[in-house]
Amino acid sequence: MRVVELAGIGPGPFAAMLLADLGADVVRVDRPGGPTLGIDPAHDLTNRNKRSVIVDLKAPDGPARVLDLAARADVLIEGNRPGVAERLGVGPDACHARNPRLVYGRMTGWGQDGPLAHRAGHDVAYIAVTGTLGMIGAPDAPPAVPANLLGDYAGGSLYLVVGILAALHHARATGTGQVVDAAIVDGAAHLSTMIHGMLAAGGWQDRRGVNLLDGGCPYYGTYETADGGHIAVGALEPRFYDEFVRLLGLDGFTDARTDPSRWDELGKAVAARFSSRTRDEWTAVFAASDACVAPVLSLREAPHHPHLTARATFTDHGGITQPAPAPRFSATPTAVRGGPARPGADTAGVARDWDAPRLLTDPPQGD
Fold it and tell me: What region, left, alpha or beta, does residue 196 occupy, with left being phi > 0 and alpha being psi -120 to 50 degrees?
């Protein structure tokens, strides 16, 4: 599968990386001096397994170069505000005129229409209006920001990839491509479907820190340990809860699981017990149990966890430790085949492999 990615930041590049991890030939069209994360491109891991060419879409022949690639692609991904790609000459109509089978993936925060469609925004604003941000955090503090994982990547990138793969089935069956409008507000709202069901059934209160899965329940949350570390607890089911309170030495709270009137007392008792030992000591206590207890690890600690090490959940490539491609396949294993694409470094190879000689009008910047 061939994918053209018009360079951007955040969820678009991540979606293209996921497709590249799964084996797609992804060509990233970078701008001259184009957008980056503000870090050395050699460390921009969302550009791994890709190739890069540089095209100035504002130059007279810039759009034609991108359309040459779109004509030979299965998928194009862009993340501009609505109407920008059209003004640049590489919108869906122009691309479909060259390639009717093309799946045109559009990644935005607000979507292609609606009152806010043309407004700027970032992850935190998108998840704010969907109600998902308001669910996260303590009841007596402002909502906690979950980095940009919930909006950009869960509600954005992953929904774009699902849409692209579904649209590819349609294109291959009918010969007709289409536009995939992946909006972070839509995806983030969709992620909360189960919660809305619980809310309608009276099983969820519309405020944070008082529910089963938002830290309001004393046996589903996090606790500080004696060394300043933290332990995560998810002992929801009866047998897991029974093992949890037994190993914690709180046998007097066996019946508190189904008695919310005792949750405050239980929470204080659990916090007191965890504060009496270090994170690693409690990790050892629960290591061989089904109490659903785990240490809260940092980004640098996570790759060394024994389970993640055994599964090779993280990998090293080019001297950088990074998450390995996911998910896994029994017949077609994935791998990090190449490090982050350097802007423009693959122009000659892409021009040859994609039969797009117009890319070579100017001298390539490497190969």
Answer: alpha
pLDDT of residue 35: 60
Grouping H, G, I as helix, E, B as strand and the rest as coil, residue 105 is strand
193 burial class (0-12, 13-18, 19+ CB within 10 angstroms)? exposed
What is the spatial distance between Cα 339 and Cα 337, in angstroms, rounded to a whole number? 7
Residue keyed to tokens 């979606």: 15
Amino acid residing at 180: V
Q: Is the pTM of this model over 0.70?
A: yes
d(CA 50, CA 332): 18
290: number of Cβ within 10 Å: 13
Measured distance CA(149)–CA(19) in Å, rounded: 18
Q: For residue 140, indicate whether it is catalytic.
A: no
pLDDT single digits (tens) 332-359:
999 999 999 999 999 999 999 999 999 9
Choose, from 152, 186, 214, 346, the residue flagged as catalytic: 152
- Provide the pLDDT for residue 364: 44
Contacts of 204 (CB under 8 A, 6+ apart): 195, 198, 211, 212
Structure tokens at 223: 């606790």
Tell the burial category of 129 from Cβ atoms under 10 Å away from its Cβ (0-12, 13-18, 19+): middle
Give the separation between CA 58 and CA 84, rounded to whole angstroms.
12
Contact between 134 and 144 under an 8 Å Cβ cutoff? The reply is: no
Give the CA radius of gyration of the chain: 24
Per the CB < 8 A criterion, the answer to whether 352 and 64 are in contact is: no
Q: Is 227 a catalytic residue?
A: no
Q: What six digits make up the tokens of 144?
A: 């906690």
Q: Average pLDDT, stretch 123-138? A: 97
- What does the chain come to in residues? 367
Which has the closest alpha carbon to 178: 106, 102, 111? 102
CA distance 46 to 339: 9
The secondary structure of 19-60 as a DSSP string is HHHTT-EEEEEEPTT----SS-GGG-GGGTTEEEEE--TTST
pLDDT at 270: 98
d(C-alpha 78, C-alpha 107), whole Å: 6
Please enumerate in sequence order all residues whose Cβ is within 8 A of that of 117, keeping only pairs 6 or more positions apart, or say none: 81, 82, 108, 110, 111
Q: Which of 40, 118, 122, 304 is catalytic?
A: 122
